[in-house]
Amino acid sequence: MSDALINGLAGAGGGIIAQLITYPLQTVNTRQQTERDLKKEKRKLGTIEQMCQVVKQEGWERLYGGLTPSLKKGIGDGSVGMLSSLIVAALSGCVNVLLTNPIWVVVTRMQTHTNILRKDHSNRLATPALEETVLSAIEPFSYSTGHAIQEVYDEAGFWGFWKGVFPTLIMVSNPAMQFMLYETMLKKLKKQRSLSKPDNNGVTALEIFLLGALAKLGATVVTYPLNVVKARLQAKQVATGDRRHQYKGTMDAILKMIRYEGFYGFYKGMSTKIVQSVLAAAVLFMIKEELVKGARLLLVKDGIHTVKSKLP
Predict the structure, then answer these.
(1) pTM of this prediction?
(2) What CATH architecture applies to the domain 3-307?
(3) pLDDT at 81 over 50
(4) Which long-range contacts (CB under 8 A, 24 or more apart) does 254-262 make?
(5) Is residue 107 pLDDT above 80, yes or no?
(6) Which of 31, 63, 65, 259 is an S-S bond match for 110, by CB 3.0 to 4.6 Å?
């Protein structure tokens, strides 16, 4: 088995595990990003409070809304070197965005469905009692992948599945930046380790975890505003007459957010995103490295066993 295949399989395994662990945070973060309440006096719920609210009002399964199409997208290895590798990664990332944007539109709809639905009805219902009565009848409705696809198509047709593609294309720089930082820090750490301990330049799982977290933190802080714009465009438009809540495109969304929400609007839910993405990246790198070590060890043992079996 080649090194590339081992790294690819390990990266995919680590990515899936990281996705399963951190997906509830991603769901809450998407809801925070698409929050369009302009009332300053309303107290914002913290991440844990919002997760508890989702569980209480909608059930545990809503924290994993859209997980199936998200996992079907697949996760690769993503290791990059320097300039030439970054260019290749950026180009392949652009192709990946164009092909998978429909999946993320559906995922965003599924993550924000009940949130937007509640807001839409609360804007139109006369009394809290009537609102709760209607919502209690709506909640059991199963909003599946098929419903999300149909909703997007009915709303904007075929091209609706490519909403938010422009900020997403720019965000291709996020993983490239992340892996560049990770590889740079990893090489420096190994170099320092080899100078101090010539017989051992390896790194521990904890060190890999921390390096992955730092790399993702840097990339997330830089590209987060684009993530918010993308989520706003991909989420269902609130059915009210307020044009401040309706976006025609990327520039329209950016200008309206600046005008009505200020620059703070571009960083809504950032603390949740940092925890989710940093934790996911750290877990991915740590599990990947451990799986690669384990696979190589098994191959070496298998090779030794094969050689011994052939000896007279």
Answers:
(1) 0.57
(2) Alpha/alpha barrel (1.50)
(3) no
(4) 254/229, 257/228, 257/229, 257/232, 260/38, 261/38
(5) yes
(6) 65
Q: Which amino acid is at 259?
A: R
Q: Which tokens is 79 given?
A: 């290791």
- Structure-token pair, residue 68: 């199936």
Q: Whole-angstrom Cα distance, residue 15 to residue 277? A: 11
Q: Give the whole-angstrom CA distance, residue 120 versus residue 126.
A: 12
Check if the beta carbon of residue 152 is closer than 8 Å to that of residue 106. yes
Distance CA 293, CA 286 (A): 11
Neighbours of 200 (CB within 10 A): 9
Query: What is the three-class DSSP state of 157?
Result: coil
What is the DSSP annotation of 27-64?
HHHHHHHT-----TTSPPPPHHHHHHHHHHHH-GGGGG
Residue whose pair of structure tokens reads 């609102």 in the numeric block: 131
Rounded to a whole number of angstroms, the distance between the first and last alpha carbons of the chain is 27
**H helices within the chain, ranges in order?**
3-33, 47-58, 67-72, 83-122, 128-138, 145-156, 165-170, 173-196, 205-234, 250-261, 270-310
Domain ranges in the chain are 3-307
What is the model's pLDDT at position 304? 60
Sign of CA dihedral 144, 150, 153, 159: positive
Query: 3-class DSSP state for residue 22?
Result: helix
Distance, C-alpha 236 to centroid of its chain = 18
Checking if the pLDDT of 16 tops 80, the result is no
Question: Measured between alpha carbons, how far is 157 from 127 in angstroms, rounded to an integer?
Answer: 35
Question: What is the rounded distance in angstroms from the CA atom of residue 254 to the CA atom of residue 226?
Answer: 9
Alpha carbons 43 and 254: distance in angstroms, whole number: 24
- Would you say residue 198 has pLDDT above 50? yes
